[in-house]
Amino acid sequence: MDYVVIIVGGLLLAWTLLQWIHWVAISNGSNKKLPPGPIPLPLIGNLHNIVGDQPHKSLARLAQIYGPMMSLRMGQITTVVISSSAVAKQVLQKQDLAFSSRTIPDAICANNHHQFSVVFLPAASRWRSLRKILNSNMFSSNKLDATQHLRSQRMQDFIGYCSKCSQTGESVNIGKAAFETMVNLLSNTIFSKDVVDPYANSGKEFKDVIRSVLEESGKPNFADYFPLLKRIDPQGIRRRTGKHFDKLLHHIMKGLIDERLEKRRKSQNGSRTDFLQVMLNTSEEDPQAIDRDHIQHLCLDLFVAGTDTTSSTLEWAMVEVMRKPYIMNKARSELADVIGKGTIIEEVDIARLPYLQCIVKETLRMHPPVPFLIRKVDQDVEACGYFVPKDSQVLVNVWSIGRDPATWEDPLTFKPERFWNLKMGVLGLDFELIPFGAGRRICPGLTMATTILSTMLGSLLNSFDWKAEGEIAAEDLDVEEKFGITLARSRGLLLGCTLFLCIGWFAISKKCNKKLPPGPYPLPLIGNLHNILGGQPHQSLDKLAQKYGPIISLRLGLKTTVVISSSAVAKQVLQKQDLAFSSRTIPDAIYALNHYQFSVVWLPVANRWRSLRKILNSYIFSASSLDANQHLRSGKIQDLIAYCGGCSQTGEAVNIEQAAFETSMNLLSNTIFSKDVVDPYANSGKVFKDVVSSITEDAGKPNLSDYFPLFKTIDPQGIRRRVGKHFGKLLQQFEGLIDERLEARRKSATIGSTDVLDVLLNTSKEDAQAIDRNHIERLCLDLFVAGTDTTSSTLEWAMVEVMRKPYIMNKAKAELAEVIGQGKAIEEADVARLPYLQCIVKETLRIHPPVPFLIRKVDQDVEACGYFVPKDSQVLVHVWSIGRDPAIWEDPLTFKPERFWSSKMDVRGQDFELIPFGAGRRICPGLPLATRTLSVMLGSLLNSFDWKAEGDIAAEDLDVEEKFGITLARLRPLRAVPIPL
After folding, report:
1. Spatial separation of the C-alpha atoms in residues 753 and 681, rounded to whole Å
2. Is 443 among the annotated ligand-binding positions?
3. Which of 125, 268, 379, 479 has the most other CB atoms within 10 Å of its CB?
4. pLDDT tens for residues 471-524?
5. Domains defined for the chain, CATH in brackets
């Protein structure tokens, strides 16, 4: 199943991206302006804007923001929604022809129904022929008058059924009883016979099949939103609808038609004059006008369209009338005066019952049978000053128009009286009230529907008193809706149920009774990507943790992701279950030049990783090695201070992060290669920095390939290709430096230097299995990428925070003057005697950790803290959130170094409230070097100069806005002017 999801998601994504680009291009076109609307997301478009089972209400709310004509992207379908009578009139009357096609739901393509259905055929000759047959032979005034006795008989059956229930005290399911009446009414009009019996189980199959067609057709269908999925019918809706169509067409309808043909064959006298007889006669006379297929499909349309709409509207009318006894009393009074109490109403009586007509109109205003009139444009069209592109779906929100406060006073109140002196009708001429549509696509059965509604409602009110079943007071009856092809009541008037389809990720949540951590529900395809939209996903995840708890689960695309935001859970994962969580999710960018196969950062915890870590811990980051090359770092710090000194003399501002980056770069290059690689006074440093910054920026960007693994092969955003180029530039530099050293070693028998490169080359010579040339080059790449940007951004944050609070700077300078002496260079050995400086560094790492997340992965199913973490899940330990947890830190958003003054808490991975460098076996090996360097650089800057922000910015006004990436840099680089002491 997982492979199916990945394949479907991948294919869909490819199509979607192209379509989304096309949508954006249209939206931003120079002269063609789409109607306004919310910005669509990639993949799903605006589907998230109508999440839930009441899309008509969601679209009405959006119309209040974006206006009466708005555009959305429903998956891959451009959709224009119309929510005012004026725009509806423009589209359905003035430009009716341009908007006369209909979007065909994928379910309707079952059994090729769309090729025969008068509902969905394009407005061309075949459609006109079928409409003519309907209008002339079924729904004309003459035909309705001729078949009135049939409807009258069915109405008497309906009242007879209710009467029997009243005698036994049994409740009547209004919607169901009306539905069965409508089925028989239509079947008598078409076939001159009943097909259901309200007292028995006969006809149950017929009812069930029609209900099933309506339910399936009304379900949200991926294939409608993403046309690429039509071929595979992912939810099986078309297949199931096809089975229901097959029963109706090839069993029930075919049987009835065959029965009639057999009788016609046996008797030359065609005595019947029902609609089937008319269609068969027409077919014999002109097979081009209508054939056997069209007859069967036309019957299907009539039963599907003419039953549920009428029965649900009658149910709404009864609910509203029962909720307001004064309306019921007024209607009954009119009926008694005009017809006589207890008398069954005939259709001719309706004209003399104006208040009853008002009730029907008010019901159709507030509860239209269908919420939307669905149209489609076959060519580019301009309407109301907006561009509507070819193949757009157009939804006229009839439900919203009927509740428009600009048209209707007190629109949410059921008031039949509003129509008392109003000549407004439902015939498609008054666009404030168009429950049956308007223009050439207006419902052909409109007259019959309104007649039946009025007759059924009047007969029910005139024949019985009514009360709700059970203890429910009539005025407490609810008016909740159930969205579908028709707007039914969510609970039947006397008995009800709801059905909502949930798909996707929840299957995992329920799997084998194993409980995933809590979290927001994922959307289809994108999962929870919409929950972390924006440029600050670490802040979005922090807000989610406040809602769902310290361990939450999300679905980022197709990747299950567990986010940990508390020190207690972090300790469980990084210490007690460290081995189970010791792998790392590898971003697709790191696959560039196969870097993941050599990188100590990304290798799995196995022999090769252990060998490389041992080399790092023994020869680079051990205390003895750091002490041995301390003089190299001291020289680079002096270069930094000298550079700032030059700027202070000229009054030039220092880009703190840039200067710290170049210092870190030379510091590392001297430790590894015994030489500088950048010159702060020339452009060489900028080129190197640009390459490293480009790697961290690209690797930190949201990447579709990380969320949808199928896209790794095509790298749709080009991130891996760009990172590969940057890797290539750095590796070329390192290759040159290594070749240079090997040449020097070849020429000289004695090895002059004892730097890291010599150690690595010696180790490789002694044991090529431990480390080879590829690993040496990649290890250098890791050291430069991981050890420069993190250090420089942390130093920048420290300087910003210290400058924003002068008392901190003064306190630090006082400590430095007392312990070291003002203006003197600081050595690493001095740091232990500078506790307040250490507090500043710790507080900076708490509130501005170099990386926001520690990234882990589980290679097997794991249980942690009572929750199930499935195999291959990505695990993010949210260091940024833990460092700002109000359960741990008092006043967590305030920079207060003093909080560490009497605290023994450290950053070495033992105190899980403060883990900026990680913990467990994956802890950053460069931690000892980073803390030494940070403290010495910060102390030297503070002890050598006073500082002020460039320009007219007051120090306390410096902002702390972040720029998200692999490292959390400051959004705007700090430029500060050093002032001589």
Report:
1. 27
2. yes
3. 479
4. 777 676 766 665 555 555 544 444 222 222 233 333 444 444 579 999 998 876
5. 106-489 (1.10.630.10), 537-971 (1.10.630.10)
